[in-house]
Amino acid sequence: VVLAYPRTFPLSVDGELGEPYHDDLTNTALARPQDRFMDIVQRLGVCNLLGGIWRTDVLRQWTVRDTFASDNLLLPELALLGHYVQHPEVLFYRRGLRGGESSRERVTRAWSDITGKSVAPAWVSAYLLFIRQHWDILFDDRFDLPTHERYTLAARTAASLMRRHMLNSWLREDVLPALPAPVTRTLRQLWRR
Q: Within 10 Å of residue 44's Cβ, how many Cβ atoms?
């Protein structure tokens, strides 16, 4: 086990307590590192895992990358090195932020801060970079994965990330109209799968 993390209660900015957040990403049943990697890529939501207790020797092996979503790179990468276990009790509260900034606005601001761009096509560049960074992990020589598995995981990762991130409703509204028609058709076909 490389990480043990607790459940959380969401707490609104007005102090209202919600139901415990369900995000059990325990992966001890997955023996193969590539299965743990893909499990995290496909199921990761709110990153409560970051509030857990990490094995320091494993955490030091993480490669820091210039990205707007480092937690989404850290968790799959370290899943290649070991298992994650969720503690069944709620051990902390996850407070909402004041200011009314949505997740979309927060990511838009972060991307704009990194690149100096704020136009819709920048989202495509951002997520293509994000996919490539996942591929960098898969093709890192530190991980003992068969070559055919690396390519299979790269394709599955790209498809999963595009479905989860690039093709959700707010991005379709902002980005697709700004793209050439053949690209839009391809992305819409991927979204339907």
A: 18
